[in-house]
Design brief:
Elements: E1 9-10, E2 16-17, E3 27-28, E4 33-34, H1 38-69
Antiparallel strand pairs: 1-2, 3-4
């Protein structure tokens, strides 16, 4: 999910954007672009929310581990 171009390609030469890939912006295979559907945009937004929550949880666990290792708990 990096950049504005599709990272996941299918096909041997040049490839096509995999419609199920999650990325910002329109689909882009290097030769043409086409818009994502409304449902793709909704799935992308939900995926970002889930990733943000996981990162928050990991940061909390990291703080607990650091406190434990420092004998603060």
């Amino acid at each position: 999910m990096a950049g504005d171009r599709c990272d996941g390609k299918s096909g041997l030469i040049g490839g096509r954007c995999k419609l199920e890939s999650l990325h910002p912006g329109d689909h882009d295979n290097g030769n043409k672009t086409w818009p994502r559907s409304r449902s793709e945009e909704e799935v992308y937004a939900i995926a970002l929310q889930v990733l943000d929550e996981r990162m928050r949880q990991q940061a909390e666990r990291r703080k607990l581990i650091e406190r434990h290792e420092g004998r603060e708990l």
